[in-house]
Amino acid sequence: MVRKLKYPSKKVLQDNNIINYKNRGLGLENDINNSNKYYLEHDIALIYKKPTPIKVVKVDYNNRINTVIKEAYYEIPSTTDYNGLYKGKYIDFEAKETQSKTSFSLKNIHDHQIKHLINVLNHGGISFLIIRFCTLNKTFLLETSKLESFLNNETRKSIPLSYIENNGYIIKEGYYPRLNYITLIDKLYLGDNYEDEI
Fold first, then answer.
1. What is the domain-level CATH number for residue 44?
2. Is residue 67 one of the residues assigned to a domain?
3. If DSSP codes are grouped into helix, strand and coil, which group holds residue 140?
4. List of E strands, the chain
5. Of 111, 160, 104, 106, whose CA–CA distance to 132 is shortest?
6. pLDDT at 5 (0 to 100)
7. Domain residues for 167?
8. Under 8 Å CB-to-CB from 170, ≥6 apart: which residues?
9. How many domains, in total, are found in the chain?
10. Calpha distance 2→8 (Å, rounded)
11. In what order do the strands lie in the sheet with 46-49?
12. What is the pLDDT of residues 79-122, one digit of tens each?
């Protein structure tokens, strides 16, 4: 059966096993979830993936075990992918992947998500983007202040890789945690040395 999912922009997504572009970033998402699990298990930080707000419209109640959602809608636009706490600071960020070797398209992030990141920053929280350039095998942390500066001073519809390299930070990859972005938060917001390892 084909389900139709409506996003707040009235865009209808066909679901023959959920065919949409939301799941393009699962490699990055899995790496972040793995890292967050490590941070939780080692009592370092509490950072979670936010659930997407949906409204269930039609359900098939065959029995308690095999209940199936037949139709659902995105109720409101979601804000960002992750939020939580680290050393008493609120953290909020969005994670995105791109296949481009030269830039990150601003089509990949919605205006309401950018506004949310800026609001978090303006209220004293820590907010940023994690951007993975898949074909280059590089993952960057770009602070919201650098994103906002780019948007205020440029008319381009994409952020050049060179801007991200000059204004962002490479996230070290490892086995566990996979993406050790907490060391960058220590450096950028808490004054610790980036070379220190957890």
1. 3.40.1350.10
2. no
3. strand
4. 3-6, 12-15, 46-49, 54-60, 68-74, 82-86, 89-98, 103-105, 126-133, 138-143, 158-160, 169-170
5. 104
6. 47
7. 24-51+78-190
8. 138, 139, 140
9. 1
10. 19
11. 46-49, 82-86, 89-98, 126-133, 138-143, 169-170
12. 778 999 999 999 999 999 999 999 999 998 888 889 999 999 99
Residue 7 lies in a domain: no
Q: Kindly report the pTM of this predicted structure.
A: 0.73
* DSSP-derived secondary structure for 118-129: HHHHHTT-EEEE
SS3 for 198? coil
Q: What is the DSSP letter of 181?
A: T
What amino acid is encoded at 95 in this protein?
A: A
Given a contact cutoff of 8 angstroms between Cβ atoms, the answer to whether 34 and 139 are in contact is: no
Phi, psi of 131 (to 5 degrees): -120, 125
> Is residue 165 a part of any domain in this protein?
yes
The rounded radius of gyration (Å) of the Cα atoms in the chain is 18
Reported as a pLDDT band with limits 50, 70 and 90, residue 12 is: very low
What DSSP designation does 35 have?
A: H
In a domain, 61, yes or no: no
Distance CA 141, CA 131 (A): 6
Instruction: Enumerate the β-bridge partners of residue 139.
Output: 132
Q: Are the C-beta atoms of residues 133 and 184 closer than 8 Å to each other?
A: no
